[in-house]
Amino acid sequence: MHLNPYGADAVKLAADLANQRPATAGELADRCRALGLVLERPVAPRDLDQTLALLDEWEKIVDAAAGPERAERVDRLLAAAVAYPRLTDHAGSGWHLHYRDDLQPLGAVLSALIPVGTALHLAGRGMHRLGRCAVRECTTIFADTTRLGRQRYCSHRCANRDAVRRHRARTTSTP
Q1: What is the pLDDT of residues 135-150, one digit of tens each?
Q2: Per the domain annotation, does 161 fall within a domain?
Q3: How far apart (Å, rounded) are the C-alpha atoms in residues 93 and 157?
Q4: Residues 6 or more apart from 154 whose CB is under 8 A from it?
Q5: Could you tell me if residue 21 is inside a domain?
Q6: pTM
Q7: Beta-strand pair 96-98/141-143
Q8: 57-70 burial: b if 16+ Cβ within 10 Å, else e
Q9: Cβ(169)–Cβ(175) under 8 Å?
Q10: Which residue ranges does the record assign to the Zinc finger CGNR domain (predicted)?
């Protein structure tokens, strides 16, 4: 049963923000808007601080072993989010679930949205569906939304680069 589409969108937002941390409250607001988040209040520096602290904790979920440790870290973030699910049509785009009260500052919104989205993503798609690129030099985080759930790279570019590296290693070691 698919409860809510927030999982993938929220995890992609978290990955985007974690991969390239916003430097200012304005940048945070712009990037959230660009990814489809409706902002109901002005974004303040404390929202940026709260978001950066959230991302530090969220990255620990990414780097945790899939399974119990990952679930425990998600549960800690869920417990810290003071929110409850409710129906809203705030943007005139149709009724949908929100996991927060109206008119919350962006830091509070993200502190509820990202853990709930992460929980939905992992529970719905698999506890292994969050990771970092398999290329050693790349630390980019990705949310695996592929059909088969076997994503190892953040992009086609990294996958191709790694394939070329493996091919060259095989051909140079063969007499």
Answers
A1: 999 999 999 999 999 9
A2: no
A3: 35
A4: 132, 133, 135, 138, 140, 141, 142
A5: yes
A6: 0.87
A7: unpaired
A8: bbbebbebeeeeeb
A9: no
A10: 129-170
